[in-house]
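C-alpha cells incoming
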C-alpha cells in the first residue's frame, strides 16, 4: 500500500486483511516488499503502478480518492468480503486475540466494560478493541458499500 493510502490500510485491516503500510516507505522499498512477500501493490500513483506492472508485480491503480469508493474498487477487483473481521489491528497490523474483560479493568473505560462483552487486544501494540458505536457506524458504511458492489455485478 503506498504512502497515500493510510486510511484504506486501516479499513482493510478491520476487514481482517494483512496490509503492509508505512507512510515513510519509498517506491523502491515498496516494490521490493511486493516482490519478496508476493504482496499486491495498491496505489493511486500511476508511475508506481507502471513500475510494478513492468516488474511483473500484481498491482491495483485506484481511481478514487474517497475511502468508500476505494473500498468498492478493492472489493470488486479482489472479490473480498466487506464484513468486519477482528483479527488484525487497524493501527499496526498486529494480530488480535480475544481477551476477557476481567483483565481489562485498567485499560478500558468502565462504561465500555459494562456495555460490551467482546474485547480484542493487539499482540503487537497492546491496543484494545470492542464493538462499540464506532464499530456499528463502520459496519453500516460497509453494508452500504457491499450493496453497491452487489448491484454492479
Amino acid at each position: 500500500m503506498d504512502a497515500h493510502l493510510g486510511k484504506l490500510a486501516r479499513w482493510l485491516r478491520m476487514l481482517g486483511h494483512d496490509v503492509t503500510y508505512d507512510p515513510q516507505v519509498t517506491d523502491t522499498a515498496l516494490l521490493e516488499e511486493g516482490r519478496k512477500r508476493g504482496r499486491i501493490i495498491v496505489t493511486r500513483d500511476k508511475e508506481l503502478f507502471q513500475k510494478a506492472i513492468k516488474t511483473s508485480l500484481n498491482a491495483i491503480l485506484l481511481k478514487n480518492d474517497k475511502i468508500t469508493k476505494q473500498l468498492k474498487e478493492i472489493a470488486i477487483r479482489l472479490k473480498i468480503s466487506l464484513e468486519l473481521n477482528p483479527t488484525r489491528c487497524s493501527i499496526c497490523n498486529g494480530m488480535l486475540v480475544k481477551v476477557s474483560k476481567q483483565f481489562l479493568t485498567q485499560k478500558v473505560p468502565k462504561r465500555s466494560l459494562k456495555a460490551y462483552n467482546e474485547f480484542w487486544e493487539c499482540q503487537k501494540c497492546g491496543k484494545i478493541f470492542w464493538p462499540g458505536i464506532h464499530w456499528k457506524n463502520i459496519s453500516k458504511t460497509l453494508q452500504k458499500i457491499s450493496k453497491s458492489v452487489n448491484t454492479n455485478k
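note: Residues 1-84 form one domain.
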